[in-house]
Amino acid sequence: MTNLKLPEDFIFGGATAAYQVEGATSKDGKGRVAWDTFLEDNYWYTAEPASDFYHQYPVDLKLAEEFGVNGIRISIAWSRIFPEGYGEVNEKGVQFYHKVLDEAKKRGVEPFVTLHHFDTPEALHKEGDFLNRDTIDHFVNYAKFCFEEFGDKVNYWTTFNEIGPIGDGQYISGKFPPGIKYDFEKAFQSHHNMMLAHARAVKEYKEGNYKGEIGIVHALQTNYPYNPENSDDVRACKLQDILQNQFLLDATFNGKYSDETLEGVNNIFEVNGGNLDIKECDLEILNEAKDLNDFLGINYYMSDWIRAYEGKSEIFHNATGDEGSSVYRLKGIGEKVFDVDVPRTDWDWIIYPQGLYDQIMRVKNTYPNYKKIYITENGLGYKDNFENGKIDDQPRIDYVKEHFKAIHHAIEDGANVKGYFIWSLMDVFSWSNGYEKRYGLFYVDFDTQERFPKKSAYWYKELAETKEIK
Ligand code: BG6
Questions:
Q1: Ligand 1 mean position, distance from CA 428 (Å)
Q2: Among 45, 97, 186, 359, fewest CB within 10 Å belongs to which?
Protein backbone atom coordinates (compact mmCIF):
# COMPACT_ATOMS: atom_id res chain seq x y z
CA MET A 1 0.00 0.00 0.00
CA THR A 2 1.26 3.48 -0.78
CA ASN A 3 2.41 5.59 2.10
CA LEU A 4 -0.15 8.30 2.88
CA LYS A 5 1.88 10.91 4.71
CA LEU A 6 0.78 14.43 5.56
CA PRO A 7 3.15 17.42 5.60
CA GLU A 8 5.32 17.94 8.69
CA ASP A 9 3.75 21.34 9.48
CA PHE A 10 0.17 20.05 9.18
CA ILE A 11 -2.18 21.08 12.01
CA PHE A 12 -4.10 18.26 13.68
CA GLY A 13 -6.70 20.30 15.49
CA GLY A 14 -9.94 20.00 17.37
CA ALA A 15 -12.87 22.38 16.93
CA THR A 16 -15.26 23.95 19.42
CA ALA A 17 -17.69 26.89 19.43
CA ALA A 18 -18.40 29.17 22.38
CA TYR A 19 -22.12 28.50 22.73
CA GLN A 20 -21.73 24.76 22.29
CA VAL A 21 -19.04 24.28 24.91
CA GLU A 22 -18.87 27.11 27.41
CA GLY A 23 -22.13 26.86 29.37
CA ALA A 24 -22.24 29.73 31.90
CA THR A 25 -24.72 31.39 29.59
CA SER A 26 -25.58 34.17 32.02
CA LYS A 27 -22.49 34.19 34.20
CA ASP A 28 -20.15 37.12 34.84
CA GLY A 29 -22.17 39.63 32.86
CA LYS A 30 -22.70 37.67 29.64
CA GLY A 31 -25.56 39.04 27.58
CA ARG A 32 -28.33 36.85 26.19
CA VAL A 33 -28.21 35.49 22.67
CA ALA A 34 -31.17 34.70 20.45
CA TRP A 35 -30.52 30.99 20.92
CA ASP A 36 -31.19 31.19 24.70
CA THR A 37 -34.82 32.05 24.08
CA PHE A 38 -35.19 29.90 20.97
CA LEU A 39 -34.01 26.73 22.74
CA GLU A 40 -36.17 27.44 25.78
CA ASP A 41 -39.21 27.86 23.54
CA ASN A 42 -38.68 25.12 20.95
CA TYR A 43 -36.33 22.37 22.12
CA TRP A 44 -36.01 19.90 24.97
CA TYR A 45 -32.54 21.08 26.03
CA THR A 46 -30.60 24.28 26.55
CA ALA A 47 -26.96 25.35 26.30
CA GLU A 48 -26.54 24.59 30.01
CA PRO A 49 -24.31 22.96 31.01
CA ALA A 50 -22.84 22.26 27.56
CA SER A 51 -19.28 21.04 28.15
CA ASP A 52 -18.66 23.62 30.90
CA PHE A 53 -15.63 24.89 29.00
CA TYR A 54 -16.02 28.12 30.96
CA HIS A 55 -14.48 26.21 33.88
CA GLN A 56 -13.02 23.10 32.23
CA TYR A 57 -10.83 24.78 29.61
CA PRO A 58 -7.59 23.86 31.45
CA VAL A 59 -8.68 20.21 31.42
CA ASP A 60 -9.59 20.26 27.73
CA LEU A 61 -6.39 22.00 26.69
CA LYS A 62 -4.30 19.59 28.77
CA LEU A 63 -6.04 16.67 27.06
CA ALA A 64 -5.42 18.30 23.68
CA GLU A 65 -1.72 18.51 24.44
CA GLU A 66 -1.56 14.92 25.71
CA PHE A 67 -3.26 13.59 22.59
CA GLY A 68 -1.15 15.47 20.08
CA VAL A 69 -3.90 17.94 19.15
CA ASN A 70 -1.82 20.98 18.21
CA GLY A 71 -4.61 23.38 17.22
CA ILE A 72 -7.96 24.37 18.69
CA ARG A 73 -10.79 26.28 17.11
CA ILE A 74 -12.55 28.41 19.70
CA SER A 75 -15.01 31.19 19.17
CA ILE A 76 -15.48 34.34 21.19
CA ALA A 77 -19.01 34.88 22.41
CA TRP A 78 -19.78 38.40 21.20
CA SER A 79 -22.23 38.89 24.08
CA ARG A 80 -19.58 38.04 26.69
CA ILE A 81 -17.57 41.03 25.43
CA PHE A 82 -20.47 43.36 24.57
CA PRO A 83 -23.58 42.05 26.37
CA GLU A 84 -25.84 44.14 24.12
CA GLY A 85 -23.67 43.75 21.02
CA TYR A 86 -22.15 47.22 21.40
CA GLY A 87 -21.54 49.84 24.06
CA GLU A 88 -19.96 49.01 27.37
CA VAL A 89 -17.34 46.28 27.53
CA ASN A 90 -17.80 43.40 29.98
CA GLU A 91 -14.34 43.11 31.51
CA LYS A 92 -14.97 39.66 33.00
CA GLY A 93 -15.74 38.28 29.57
CA VAL A 94 -12.54 39.79 28.19
CA GLN A 95 -10.51 38.24 30.99
CA PHE A 96 -12.01 34.80 30.34
CA TYR A 97 -10.68 34.76 26.78
CA HIS A 98 -7.27 36.02 27.91
CA LYS A 99 -7.10 33.07 30.29
CA VAL A 100 -8.10 30.58 27.57
CA LEU A 101 -5.55 31.99 25.13
CA ASP A 102 -2.79 31.95 27.77
CA GLU A 103 -3.60 28.35 28.65
CA ALA A 104 -3.56 27.35 24.97
CA LYS A 105 -0.12 28.89 24.62
CA LYS A 106 1.12 27.11 27.73
CA ARG A 107 -0.06 23.80 26.25
CA GLY A 108 1.39 24.43 22.79
CA VAL A 109 -2.04 24.36 21.18
CA GLU A 110 -2.49 26.98 18.43
CA PRO A 111 -5.76 28.87 18.80
CA PHE A 112 -7.83 29.61 15.68
CA VAL A 113 -10.34 32.17 16.88
CA THR A 114 -13.75 32.77 15.32
CA LEU A 115 -15.61 36.01 15.99
CA HIS A 116 -19.12 34.81 15.17
CA HIS A 117 -20.29 31.23 15.45
CA PHE A 118 -24.10 31.50 15.20
CA ASP A 119 -24.44 33.58 18.40
CA THR A 120 -25.56 37.12 17.60
CA PRO A 121 -26.42 38.98 20.82
CA GLU A 122 -30.18 38.88 21.42
CA ALA A 123 -30.47 42.68 21.53
CA LEU A 124 -29.18 42.88 17.94
CA HIS A 125 -31.11 39.83 16.82
CA LYS A 126 -34.33 41.52 17.91
CA GLU A 127 -33.47 44.46 15.67
CA GLY A 128 -33.21 42.20 12.61
CA ASP A 129 -29.87 40.48 13.13
CA PHE A 130 -27.73 40.84 9.98
CA LEU A 131 -30.73 41.88 7.89
CA ASN A 132 -30.30 45.19 9.69
CA ARG A 133 -27.23 46.90 8.31
CA ASP A 134 -26.50 48.51 11.72
CA THR A 135 -25.49 45.03 12.86
CA ILE A 136 -22.69 45.11 10.29
CA ASP A 137 -21.28 48.25 11.94
CA HIS A 138 -21.58 46.71 15.40
CA PHE A 139 -19.87 43.54 14.22
CA VAL A 140 -16.96 45.47 12.73
CA ASN A 141 -16.51 47.44 15.96
CA TYR A 142 -16.58 44.22 17.99
CA ALA A 143 -14.03 42.69 15.60
CA LYS A 144 -11.76 45.73 15.94
CA PHE A 145 -11.99 45.53 19.70
CA CYS A 146 -10.93 41.85 19.61
CA PHE A 147 -8.04 42.52 17.21
CA GLU A 148 -6.73 45.22 19.58
CA GLU A 149 -7.33 43.30 22.78
CA PHE A 150 -6.26 39.78 21.78
CA GLY A 151 -4.17 40.51 18.67
CA ASP A 152 -0.86 39.64 20.36
CA LYS A 153 -2.11 36.19 21.30
CA VAL A 154 -3.96 35.16 18.13
CA ASN A 155 -2.27 34.18 14.89
CA TYR A 156 -5.41 33.00 13.08
CA TRP A 157 -8.71 34.84 13.03
CA THR A 158 -11.94 33.77 11.40
CA THR A 159 -14.68 36.33 10.93
CA PHE A 160 -17.72 34.08 10.50
CA ASN A 161 -18.45 30.42 10.86
CA GLU A 162 -20.83 29.19 8.17
CA ILE A 163 -22.72 32.16 6.84
CA GLY A 164 -24.64 29.74 4.60
CA PRO A 165 -26.22 27.58 7.30
CA ILE A 166 -26.94 30.69 9.40
CA GLY A 167 -29.10 32.33 6.73
CA ASP A 168 -30.63 29.02 5.71
CA GLY A 169 -31.33 27.97 9.30
CA GLN A 170 -32.83 31.35 10.15
CA TYR A 171 -34.97 31.86 7.06
CA ILE A 172 -35.38 28.61 5.08
CA SER A 173 -35.48 25.58 7.38
CA GLY A 174 -36.43 27.65 10.42
CA LYS A 175 -34.29 25.56 12.75
CA PHE A 176 -32.31 28.63 13.87
CA PRO A 177 -33.85 31.70 15.50
CA PRO A 178 -36.09 33.45 14.47
CA GLY A 179 -37.44 30.22 12.94
CA ILE A 180 -38.75 31.64 9.64
CA LYS A 181 -39.35 29.17 6.80
CA TYR A 182 -38.93 29.35 3.02
CA ASP A 183 -38.06 33.07 2.82
CA PHE A 184 -35.35 33.03 0.17
CA GLU A 185 -35.06 36.80 -0.03
CA LYS A 186 -34.15 37.04 3.64
CA ALA A 187 -31.73 34.10 3.36
CA PHE A 188 -29.78 35.57 0.43
CA GLN A 189 -29.89 39.09 1.86
CA SER A 190 -28.47 37.94 5.18
CA HIS A 191 -25.76 35.99 3.32
CA HIS A 192 -24.84 39.15 1.42
CA ASN A 193 -24.88 41.37 4.50
CA MET A 194 -22.71 38.97 6.48
CA MET A 195 -20.27 38.78 3.57
CA LEU A 196 -20.08 42.57 3.74
CA ALA A 197 -19.38 42.40 7.46
CA HIS A 198 -16.66 39.85 6.74
CA ALA A 199 -15.08 42.02 4.04
CA ARG A 200 -15.10 45.10 6.26
CA ALA A 201 -13.57 43.22 9.20
CA VAL A 202 -10.83 41.79 6.96
CA LYS A 203 -10.02 45.25 5.65
CA GLU A 204 -9.81 46.61 9.22
CA TYR A 205 -7.47 43.78 10.18
CA LYS A 206 -5.15 44.39 7.26
CA GLU A 207 -5.19 48.16 7.69
CA GLY A 208 -4.37 47.68 11.40
CA ASN A 209 -1.22 45.70 10.51
CA TYR A 210 -1.85 43.04 13.10
CA LYS A 211 0.62 40.20 13.18
CA GLY A 212 -1.58 37.27 12.22
CA GLU A 213 -3.79 35.92 9.46
CA ILE A 214 -7.48 36.24 8.81
CA GLY A 215 -10.01 34.23 6.85
CA ILE A 216 -13.53 32.88 6.80
CA VAL A 217 -15.12 29.47 7.32
CA HIS A 218 -17.71 28.25 4.83
CA ALA A 219 -19.74 25.06 5.07
CA LEU A 220 -19.22 23.56 1.65
CA GLN A 221 -21.54 20.73 0.86
CA THR A 222 -21.20 18.90 -2.43
CA ASN A 223 -24.30 18.37 -4.55
CA TYR A 224 -24.58 15.87 -7.37
CA PRO A 225 -27.47 15.58 -9.84
CA TYR A 226 -29.56 12.51 -9.01
CA ASN A 227 -29.66 11.66 -12.69
CA PRO A 228 -26.76 13.38 -14.46
CA GLU A 229 -28.46 12.66 -17.82
CA ASN A 230 -31.54 14.62 -16.80
CA SER A 231 -31.16 18.37 -17.47
CA ASP A 232 -33.81 19.27 -14.86
CA ASP A 233 -31.86 17.42 -12.18
CA VAL A 234 -28.65 19.11 -13.33
CA ARG A 235 -30.34 22.51 -13.08
CA ALA A 236 -31.80 21.74 -9.63
CA CYS A 237 -28.35 20.69 -8.45
CA LYS A 238 -26.84 23.95 -9.73
CA LEU A 239 -29.45 26.05 -7.92
CA GLN A 240 -28.90 24.17 -4.68
CA ASP A 241 -25.16 24.72 -5.07
CA ILE A 242 -25.65 28.45 -5.64
CA LEU A 243 -27.72 28.65 -2.48
CA GLN A 244 -25.24 26.67 -0.38
CA ASN A 245 -21.83 27.40 -1.84
CA GLN A 246 -21.37 29.46 -4.98
CA PHE A 247 -22.98 32.73 -3.82
CA LEU A 248 -20.65 32.84 -0.82
CA LEU A 249 -17.49 31.71 -2.61
CA ASP A 250 -18.09 34.31 -5.33
CA ALA A 251 -18.40 37.07 -2.73
CA THR A 252 -15.32 35.83 -0.85
CA PHE A 253 -12.88 35.41 -3.73
CA ASN A 254 -14.34 37.28 -6.71
CA GLY A 255 -15.64 40.29 -4.79
CA LYS A 256 -18.83 40.11 -6.83
CA TYR A 257 -21.46 37.61 -7.88
CA SER A 258 -20.99 36.00 -11.28
CA ASP A 259 -23.73 36.29 -13.91
CA GLU A 260 -24.48 32.61 -13.44
CA THR A 261 -24.88 33.08 -9.67
CA LEU A 262 -27.20 36.08 -10.06
CA GLU A 263 -29.25 34.30 -12.70
CA GLY A 264 -29.69 31.35 -10.32
CA VAL A 265 -30.78 33.65 -7.49
CA ASN A 266 -33.25 35.36 -9.85
CA ASN A 267 -34.63 31.99 -10.93
CA ILE A 268 -35.28 31.13 -7.28
CA PHE A 269 -36.91 34.55 -6.72
CA GLU A 270 -39.09 34.20 -9.84
CA VAL A 271 -40.75 31.18 -8.25
CA ASN A 272 -40.70 32.21 -4.59
CA GLY A 273 -40.65 36.00 -4.76
CA GLY A 274 -37.77 38.14 -3.61
CA ASN A 275 -35.35 40.85 -4.49
CA LEU A 276 -31.76 41.44 -3.43
CA ASP A 277 -30.49 44.77 -2.17
CA ILE A 278 -26.88 44.95 -3.37
CA LYS A 279 -25.52 48.48 -3.44
CA GLU A 280 -22.70 49.74 -5.63
CA CYS A 281 -20.63 50.53 -2.52
CA ASP A 282 -21.17 46.96 -1.23
CA LEU A 283 -19.49 45.61 -4.32
CA GLU A 284 -16.59 48.03 -3.88
CA ILE A 285 -16.02 46.68 -0.36
CA LEU A 286 -16.27 43.04 -1.45
CA ASN A 287 -13.86 43.78 -4.27
CA GLU A 288 -11.33 45.45 -1.96
CA ALA A 289 -11.33 42.43 0.36
CA LYS A 290 -11.32 39.62 -2.18
CA ASP A 291 -7.54 39.15 -2.24
CA LEU A 292 -7.00 39.79 1.46
CA ASN A 293 -8.22 36.44 2.80
CA ASP A 294 -5.21 34.58 4.14
CA PHE A 295 -7.08 31.31 4.26
CA LEU A 296 -10.39 29.61 3.67
CA GLY A 297 -11.79 27.28 6.29
CA ILE A 298 -13.90 24.48 4.86
CA ASN A 299 -16.41 22.69 7.04
CA TYR A 300 -17.42 19.52 5.28
CA TYR A 301 -19.64 16.74 6.56
CA MET A 302 -21.75 15.40 3.72
CA SER A 303 -22.80 15.43 0.11
CA ASP A 304 -26.27 15.36 -1.39
CA TRP A 305 -27.98 14.03 -4.49
CA ILE A 306 -30.48 16.50 -5.89
CA ARG A 307 -33.39 15.98 -8.22
CA ALA A 308 -35.82 18.42 -9.79
CA TYR A 309 -38.91 19.21 -7.72
CA GLU A 310 -41.98 21.25 -8.60
CA GLY A 311 -44.13 20.97 -5.45
CA LYS A 312 -44.34 23.19 -2.40
CA SER A 313 -41.41 23.67 -0.05
CA GLU A 314 -41.21 21.16 2.75
CA ILE A 315 -38.42 20.48 5.22
CA PHE A 316 -38.43 18.01 8.08
CA HIS A 317 -35.33 18.16 10.22
CA ASN A 318 -34.27 14.82 11.69
CA ALA A 319 -33.18 16.02 15.13
CA THR A 320 -33.31 12.68 16.94
CA GLY A 321 -31.15 10.39 14.83
CA ASP A 322 -34.16 8.48 13.55
CA GLU A 323 -32.60 7.42 10.24
CA GLY A 324 -34.66 8.00 7.12
CA SER A 325 -36.93 10.69 8.54
CA SER A 326 -35.40 13.73 6.78
CA VAL A 327 -37.34 15.66 4.15
CA TYR A 328 -35.81 18.54 2.16
CA ARG A 329 -37.71 19.85 -0.86
CA LEU A 330 -37.52 23.44 -1.99
CA LYS A 331 -39.93 24.93 -4.48
CA GLY A 332 -38.10 26.33 -7.48
CA ILE A 333 -34.85 24.65 -6.46
CA GLY A 334 -34.95 20.89 -5.97
CA GLU A 335 -35.20 17.96 -3.64
CA LYS A 336 -32.57 16.00 -1.73
CA VAL A 337 -32.77 12.25 -2.35
CA PHE A 338 -31.69 10.51 0.84
CA ASP A 339 -32.06 6.86 -0.13
CA VAL A 340 -29.15 6.76 -2.56
CA ASP A 341 -26.81 3.80 -2.38
CA VAL A 342 -24.25 5.59 -0.21
CA PRO A 343 -23.82 5.22 3.57
CA ARG A 344 -25.40 7.83 5.79
CA THR A 345 -25.46 8.70 9.47
CA ASP A 346 -28.46 8.18 11.76
CA TRP A 347 -29.24 11.86 11.10
CA ASP A 348 -29.33 11.21 7.30
CA TRP A 349 -26.06 12.93 6.55
CA ILE A 350 -24.66 11.18 3.49
CA ILE A 351 -21.06 10.04 4.05
CA TYR A 352 -19.05 10.69 0.91
CA PRO A 353 -15.35 11.63 1.33
CA GLN A 354 -15.00 12.17 -2.43
CA GLY A 355 -17.25 15.21 -1.90
CA LEU A 356 -14.55 16.79 0.28
CA TYR A 357 -11.93 16.20 -2.42
CA ASP A 358 -14.30 17.72 -4.98
CA GLN A 359 -14.89 20.85 -2.88
CA ILE A 360 -11.18 21.42 -2.21
CA MET A 361 -10.38 21.05 -5.91
CA ARG A 362 -13.30 23.30 -6.84
CA VAL A 363 -11.86 26.08 -4.69
CA LYS A 364 -8.38 25.52 -6.11
CA ASN A 365 -9.55 25.51 -9.72
CA THR A 366 -12.34 28.10 -9.65
CA TYR A 367 -10.94 30.60 -7.18
CA PRO A 368 -7.17 30.58 -7.80
CA ASN A 369 -6.64 33.60 -5.49
CA TYR A 370 -7.39 31.39 -2.46
CA LYS A 371 -4.12 31.13 -0.53
CA LYS A 372 -4.54 28.13 1.71
CA ILE A 373 -7.22 25.91 3.09
CA TYR A 374 -7.85 24.50 6.53
CA ILE A 375 -10.50 21.85 6.98
CA THR A 376 -12.03 23.61 9.95
CA GLU A 377 -14.73 21.02 10.70
CA ASN A 378 -15.31 17.41 9.76
CA GLY A 379 -16.47 14.54 11.92
CA LEU A 380 -19.14 11.98 12.64
CA GLY A 381 -22.24 12.58 14.75
CA TYR A 382 -22.73 9.25 16.51
CA LYS A 383 -24.58 7.75 19.47
CA ASP A 384 -21.48 6.75 21.38
CA ASN A 385 -21.72 3.74 23.63
CA PHE A 386 -20.10 4.31 27.01
CA GLU A 387 -18.99 1.06 28.61
CA ASN A 388 -16.92 1.10 31.80
CA GLY A 389 -15.11 4.24 30.81
CA LYS A 390 -14.34 2.91 27.32
CA ILE A 391 -15.85 4.16 24.10
CA ASP A 392 -15.28 2.11 20.98
CA ASP A 393 -16.13 4.59 18.21
CA GLN A 394 -14.62 2.72 15.26
CA PRO A 395 -17.19 4.23 12.81
CA ARG A 396 -15.81 7.68 13.69
CA ILE A 397 -12.24 6.52 13.05
CA ASP A 398 -13.31 5.07 9.69
CA TYR A 399 -15.13 8.28 8.76
CA VAL A 400 -12.22 10.56 9.67
CA LYS A 401 -9.63 8.30 8.06
CA GLU A 402 -11.45 8.27 4.72
CA HIS A 403 -11.76 12.07 4.78
CA PHE A 404 -8.05 12.36 5.55
CA LYS A 405 -7.37 10.23 2.48
CA ALA A 406 -9.45 12.65 0.40
CA ILE A 407 -7.41 15.57 1.79
CA HIS A 408 -4.16 13.78 1.04
CA HIS A 409 -5.36 13.15 -2.50
CA ALA A 410 -6.18 16.85 -2.94
CA ILE A 411 -2.75 17.87 -1.62
CA GLU A 412 -1.13 15.50 -4.11
CA ASP A 413 -3.17 17.17 -6.81
CA GLY A 414 -1.77 20.56 -5.87
CA ALA A 415 -4.22 21.97 -3.32
CA ASN A 416 -2.67 23.91 -0.45
CA VAL A 417 -4.33 22.32 2.59
CA LYS A 418 -2.54 23.12 5.82
CA GLY A 419 -4.56 21.54 8.58
CA TYR A 420 -7.61 19.69 9.84
CA PHE A 421 -9.83 20.31 12.86
CA ILE A 422 -11.99 17.43 13.92
CA TRP A 423 -15.49 18.39 14.98
CA SER A 424 -15.31 18.22 17.85
CA LEU A 425 -12.48 18.23 20.38
CA MET A 426 -14.75 17.01 23.18
CA ASP A 427 -18.45 16.22 23.07
CA VAL A 428 -20.50 19.38 22.78
CA PHE A 429 -24.18 20.10 22.51
CA SER A 430 -25.61 20.30 19.01
CA TRP A 431 -27.75 23.36 18.21
CA SER A 432 -30.70 21.53 16.74
CA ASN A 433 -30.05 17.98 17.92
CA GLY A 434 -29.23 18.21 21.62
CA TYR A 435 -26.77 16.17 23.61
CA GLU A 436 -27.15 12.69 22.14
CA LYS A 437 -25.48 13.50 18.85
CA ARG A 438 -21.86 13.25 19.91
CA TYR A 439 -18.79 14.17 17.87
CA GLY A 440 -15.90 14.48 20.34
CA LEU A 441 -12.53 12.81 20.62
CA PHE A 442 -13.23 13.01 24.34
CA TYR A 443 -16.48 11.72 25.77
CA VAL A 444 -18.13 14.17 28.17
CA ASP A 445 -20.33 12.96 30.97
CA PHE A 446 -22.62 15.99 30.98
CA ASP A 447 -23.68 15.33 34.61
CA THR A 448 -20.23 15.23 36.14
CA GLN A 449 -18.29 16.99 33.35
CA GLU A 450 -15.70 14.21 33.43
CA ARG A 451 -13.82 13.56 30.19
CA PHE A 452 -12.93 10.10 28.78
CA PRO A 453 -10.74 9.64 25.70
CA LYS A 454 -12.53 7.61 23.02
CA LYS A 455 -10.81 5.04 20.84
CA SER A 456 -10.71 7.75 18.16
CA ALA A 457 -8.60 9.97 20.45
CA TYR A 458 -5.86 7.33 20.57
CA TRP A 459 -6.08 6.89 16.80
CA TYR A 460 -5.88 10.66 16.26
CA LYS A 461 -2.86 10.88 18.57
CA GLU A 462 -1.00 8.34 16.48
CA LEU A 463 -1.98 10.14 13.29
CA ALA A 464 -0.74 13.46 14.69
CA GLU A 465 2.53 11.88 15.82
CA THR A 466 3.32 9.86 12.71
CA LYS A 467 1.41 11.99 10.16
CA GLU A 468 0.68 8.75 8.40
CA ILE A 469 -2.90 7.85 7.50
CA LYS A 470 -3.18 4.20 8.51
C1 BG6 B 1 -21.46 22.91 11.78
C2 BG6 B 1 -21.36 23.92 12.86
O3 BG6 B 1 -22.52 23.28 10.98
O4 BG6 B 1 -21.77 21.60 12.07
C5 BG6 B 1 -21.29 23.33 14.27
O6 BG6 B 1 -20.33 24.82 12.66
C7 BG6 B 1 -22.22 22.16 14.34
O8 BG6 B 1 -21.59 24.35 15.16
C9 BG6 B 1 -21.68 21.10 13.39
O10 BG6 B 1 -22.42 21.64 15.60
C11 BG6 B 1 -22.41 19.78 13.42
O12 BG6 B 1 -23.77 20.00 13.20
P13 BG6 B 1 -24.86 19.35 14.12
O14 BG6 B 1 -26.16 19.88 13.62
O15 BG6 B 1 -24.75 17.89 13.94
O16 BG6 B 1 -24.53 19.79 15.50
A1: 10
A2: 45
